[in-house]
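Async update (no meeting this week)

Hi team, since we skipped the sync, here's where things stand on the single-chain job. The sequence we agreed to prioritize is pasted below, unchanged from the tracker. I ran it this morning and attached the output directly underneath so nobody has to dig for it. Comments welcome in thread, and please keep replies under the output.
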Amino acid sequence: MNIVALLASFIYLVSSSLLLPVLLLLSLITVWLLTYSGQFFGLWLARRRLSTPANAIESLTALHFNGFSAPVRAFGQAFDQVRQTPGAEIAVLNLLRDTEHGMWRSLDRLKMLIRIGPGLGLMGTLIPLGTGLAALGQGDLTRLSGDLVIAFTTTVVGMALGLLSYFFFTIQRRWVEEDVKNMELLCEVAMREERS
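Output:
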């Protein structure tokens, strides 16, 4: 038997068998991103309702977190407990690094989806094109048109997932940067006061 034909048949089989997982993943990611959109909108509304303090340093020094976001308020409460313990400076630094790490890690899914969405869309395009061309060779135009519909719709869905993920990631990265800045400011101001 011709080894090239055997390998080509094997690769064709592998490629064709990937279509179902690709469609399934695209569907699951679409549902997840729609759910995430609601969560994102809730966070956006909560931040819009915040009344930014006139003097952030004074508010942080007095441990008044009313004008700050929920992550900063939660950090402020944890900070207030940790600063009372012995060896507070190291404990505060550890708390700050852990909180920062957790906040950046929370963006990992969106960061991955920026690449995964279009990648799955491209796979969902190329796989049906291969089977469609095979159907064209056999004169099966009905199957070819069905495969072309799958190819184009998966491209659109994959690109839309990538673009939405990039939009959410960009906005949330700015929020995380702002929150981390306020947390670092709180730590510096409070620890400087304790040293003096």
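Quick observations from my side:
The longest helix spans residues 141-195.
The mean pLDDT is 89.
Reply here if anything looks off.
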